[in-house]
Amino acid sequence: MGFELLRPATVPQAVALASAAAPGELAVLAGGTDLLLDVDRGLVAPRRVLSLARLPWHSHRWAKGGLTVGSAEPLRNLELDPRLARRLPGLHDAIRAVGSVALRERATLGGNVVRAAPASDLLPILLAYDAVVDVVGPEGRRSVALDALLARSREPALGHGELVASVAIPTTADSVYRWQRVRPANDVSQVGVAVVRSTERPYWRVALGGVPSRPLRLHDVERELARARPTREELGRAAAVAGASAPFVSDKRASEPYRRRVVALLLTRSVEQLLARATPKAG
Amino acid sequence: MARARRGLEVNGHRRSLDGVPDDERLLDTLRGRWRLTGTKEGCRSGGCGACTVLVEGRPTLSCLTLSSEVEGSAVTTIEGIASDAVGRVVRTAFEREGALQCGYCTPGFVLALVGLLKERGARVASETLVEELSGNLCRCTGYVSIRRAAEAAREALG
Ligand SMILES: Cc1cc2nc3c(=O)[nH]c(=O)nc-3n(C[C@@H](O)[C@@H](O)[C@H](O)COP(=O)(O)OP(=O)(O)OC[C@H]3O[C@@H](n4cnc5c(N)ncnc54)[C@H](O)[C@@H]3O)c2cc1C
Ligand code: FES
Ligand code: FES
């Protein structure tokens, strides 16, 4: 059975439509790379689909100290902005891990956040940047830390009728995202590690994807990396902690012991890569 | 839903979207409705690139795009590639390098490469060229000839 497409031109109209719908009757469409596949597989059967296409959410903005990404901005637009690789290199790495060029022409960062997939390549780096999500709904606007939005596994903490308007990254920081998977394009990461190097404590912010529940910050690893320039031994201990404490399981993509070895390697290489760069990136 | 629609401009010709259901994919509108069967359906789930077309000059998966979502846009399919300067260069490169066997993946590769050369220009690094074509799958060639064709097209434009 097909669906009817609603294409409101203003945010209040979109919120009114989303709020008026009965549960399960309406689905939100950003790029559709998750939603349309769910429809094809019969996982959801919305009668109406609310398109974000005409809302003023198709842009990204650099402001003092950070980046704000409209929820309907395609990933490809971000990646083609030459400032991204300079100012937020880890986000650039992560975006280029998603699917393929032609997929990223439609897939959005907002859709990836709402999808909250445990193997998402974008969530680890966004968590490491302490990203904040701007939400609009029947009660107005609110900002929520991404970490809090992801509190429940696979189900972001959005109320009925609420839409993600934008995602804000409150920093520009040297950073890297590394992943392990069988095939570079169109494959799912077995493990993803995001590392952000900060000029303030904690100097190293580390987050992980490829765990069963949801991507998460590795605070115990961050504590091991207490100093701006950790020694080899300190880095080795941090890698051991990452390998031992990350809540991995075995599944069809990789075994638990494999993931434990890989996470230690990815963490070590990421920190070494950032230490080898002359100065922390800025501007 | 009854409403005035702006249609699409496909290979330079205006096409109406009247009567096209809201949930129809661009792939099906192109192939089933307009008989532009050069665009191929492979996986229908975003993973093979066979259905790649250009929307406003940029490579897009037509299997994961609703026709109604891109109304008002210019769409280029393999049928329109000869009227594009970069398209002609890429086609010649594929012919010269013999970069196809069964040909099923070819329209997707050609459109992906044309879009990429337009987005990144003829100075694009070989590494980027290969990486950005890696969303397109080919079961026949082993990719070496396709890679040669991509580099030949880049040289010809440089
Ligand atoms: C072949 C293929 C390969 C992929 N590879 C990767 C990969 O390597 N790494 C990776 O991380 N992901 C990958 N993905 C998934 C990735 O494409 C999506 O997660 C994408 O980023 C989601 O964005 P979208 O705009 O397409 O979302 P949509 O499909 O439009 O929406 C996703 C979900 O979020 C809801 N939603 C969307 N926007 C909003 C909003 N503003 N407010 C409220 N709800 C909203 C929708 O209702 C839906 O439930 C892949 C997908 C495919 C098909
Ligand atoms: S048919 Fe669209 S990507 Fe395979
Ligand atoms: S030539 Fe047959 S799939 Fe590529």
Q: Which structural class matches the secondary elements of chain A?
A: alpha+beta
Q: What separation lies between the terminal Cα atoms of chain A?
A: 51 Å
Largest interface: A-B, 29 and 31 residues
Strand adjacency order, main sheet of chain B: 2-1-5-3-4
CATH superfamily of the largest domain in chain B: [2Fe-2S]-binding domain
- The CATH topology of the largest domain in chain B turns out to be DNA polymerase, domain 1
Radius of gyration of chain A: 19 Å
Mean pLDDT of chain A: 94
CATH architecture of the largest domain in chain B: Orthogonal Bundle
Overview of the structural elements:
The complex is a heterodimer of chains A (283) and B (158). Chain A is an alpha+beta fold and 283 residues long. In chain A, 35% of the residues lie in helices and 21% in strands. In chain A, the strands form 3 sheets. Chain A has a 5-stranded antiparallel sheet with strand order 4-5-8-6-7. Chain A has a 4-stranded antiparallel sheet with strand order 9-10-11-12. A 3-stranded parallel sheet of chain A has the order 1-3-2, with helices on one face. In chain A, helix 11 packs antiparallel against helix 12. The mean pLDDT of chain A is 94. Chain B has helices at residues 26-33, 85-97, 106-120, 126-133, 144-157; strands at residues 8-10, 13-15, 52-55, 58-61, 74-76. Helix content of chain B is 37%, strand content 11%. Chain B has 158 residues and is of the alpha+beta class. A 5-stranded mixed sheet of chain B has the order 2-1-5-3-4, with helices on one face. The radius of gyration of chain B is 16 Å and the shape is globular. Chain B has 5 helices and 5 strands; from the N terminus they run E-E-H-E-E-E-H-H-H-H. Chain B folds into 2 domains: 8-79, Ubiquitin-like (UB roll) (Roll); 81-157, DNA polymerase, domain 1. Chain A binds chain B through residues 2-5, 7, 29, 31-33, 36-37, 39-40, 49, 51, 53, 76, 80, 96, 99-103, 105-106, 184-186, and chain B through 1, 21-23, 25, 44-49, 52, 55, 58-61, 64-66, 68-69, 112, 115-116, 119, 131-132, 134-136. The structure holds flavin-adenine dinucleotide and FE2/S2 (inorganic) cluster (2 copies).
